[in-house]
Amino acid sequence: MEIQIFPFSDSRLGPVDGYRLRDGDLTVTVLSLGATVQQIRYRGKDLVCGFSDADAYLNSTCYYGATVGRCCNRMSALRLGGTAYPLSRNENGTNQLHGGFAGFDRKLWTATATADGLTLSCVSPDGEEGYPGELRVSVTFSLRDDTLSLRYEAISDKDTAVNLTNHAYFNLDGPGGTVLDHTLFLDADAVSVCDGLHLPTGEHLPVDGTPFDFRVRHPIGRDIACAHPQLTPWGGYDNNFLLRKPIPHAFSLAARVEGKEIGMELFTDRSCVQLYTANDEHPEPMVGMERQIRHRAFCLETQEEPNACNFDPPSDALFLKAGERYEARTSYRFYPIATQETT
To answer: Fewest CB atoms within 10 A around its CB: which of 59, 98, 243, 255?
Structure first.
């Protein structure tokens, strides 16, 4: 794997560097701002949405390609060991979304080339966005055999909560259209039930007979307009799927998506994945001046079940004990459709 460093652009936080990773047909560009995947290029096709200017990322509310934390997705509060920690509420004054007002997507990370790939690191101070403990975080990006692999690590000096993910927006046909015709297999039997504030409650809805059943691959857009209380309010998919894991935290296939010419397989050791289908439009143009149209991309955000510490009874899925190491892995394998056997 080759790594090339280059100045990406200035930003109001300071200069942002780009790191271009290349191995065979796969090239991935990662930014020091937000440990962000700015570009994935495979066999000459751009597969993710993003911006060509660092301040455009800071001005956006979409978390394009960013490493998200401390806790991705939505949280109402944080309860640990009987102690309640009031979190910042950056969504409608009610929830914390993707780590708060200044989450990991808005930090300048430090990059180091290692034998495994490119490692980006940052420190979240004690009390930041309401979380206890100084948290030291790293994400290692590596390429091999048409696969982009991400390894997350974190350690805290106090008991805290961690739930890291990457928020890449994929369009396997390239930017400019929608992903409604992409076919999706998602190895999940249930989705999290959300309340009116889009917070998971701890209840689970079996996918049988619902628009959430992707156990047999079909177009993302086939059922996206179906009337359903866990689909209609969000204008498309924005749901946490509970993966079928015979062995907890086994590294296994979670999803397979195919466009017209390129396919992608998602592997993870996390227990859940959030399917989001870019259900809104925004005025800021993306790379190549492409519009941010509705359903322009899909996100598959690997994670533990969001808001789990606030369930009744609470789950310890997000809990990280002081001095213990958080580790998580996710990989994306790309392939040309013509040479992939379908299942």
So the answer is: 59
Q: Hey, is 308 helix, strand or coil?
A: helix
Torsion of CA 66, 72, 73, 78, to 10 degrees: -150
13: left (phi over 0), alpha (psi -120 to 50) or beta: alpha
| CA–CA distances in Å: residue 317 to residues 71, 135, 271, 303, 321 | 11, 17, 9, 10, 11
CATH of the domain at 179: 2.70.98.10
Task: Show the domain range for 136.
Answer: 2-339
Mean pLDDT in residue range 36-47: 97
**Catalytically annotated residue among 98, 128, 129, 167:** 167
pLDDT of residue 82: 82
Structure tokens at 74: 């939505």
Is 182 marked active-site? no
What global pTM score does this model have? 0.96
The half-sphere exposure of 159 on its side-chain side, counting CA atoms within 13 A, is 12
Among 258, 265, 301, 304, the one annotated catalytic: 301
Please tell me the total count of domains within the chain.
1
Q: Is 167 tagged catalytic?
A: yes
